Structure of D-Ala-D-Ala dipeptidase:
Amino acid sequence: MITTLDGPIVIEPTVSPPPGVGVRECGEPLAEVAGVPGVHAAPAYHQRGITAAGPRIFVRRRVLAALQQASAALPDGIGILVWDGLRTLETQAEIVEQFRRTLPDPGDDATVEMYLALPPASQEEFLAAPPPHATGGAVDVTLCDTEGRPLDLGAEFDEFNERSWLAYYENDDRSEYRRLRRMLYWAMLGAGFAPYSWEFWHYELGTMVSAAFHGERFAEYGAAIPWRKP
């Protein structure tokens, strides 16, 4: 039971994929993020012209129920806006290459991997440790008003710099961004999600990262899309 949405954000840097965690696919079907009270969809990559990204957002069925639970924990007038969920490998590769072009060194994999999962090099790698968004268990979310308009949490979606780090505003006692990020953080954790330290918008449920966060040995969600080398 959530008793507060304003407690401090305390989180260790996230490692993905986490060591020592395996995958036991549960076979749960996908569901579209649509028609759920308090949960709005705004497919950001489609709207930004990523050619492989579609106009609809899909997640695992339990993830959708958990998003509704998180929304129900928020104050009146505030909901959850979903920017992305299930992502094809083609979409992942296109996003990675677009980000690389913004870096002084396009081959800087360490910086890329802080914010994005590199496309797997083989089917074996894909099945053993699928990118979180390929499982249907990862979502990119923010807070919104009742019309689905995003609130300002101090950084734009996919603004890959320090302002996007989950706890970036934690030391600013007067920050409205801190208040809103804490609100989103505790609502999502209360619904069972695991946070991601480098992006305030990224949360996971049933994935390898989520399993590690909750002290479990196996993820429930493996790849929800077929292997296809992008």
Notes: The chain is about 25% helix and 15% strand. The two ends are 42 Å apart (CA to CA). The chain has one domain: 22-219.
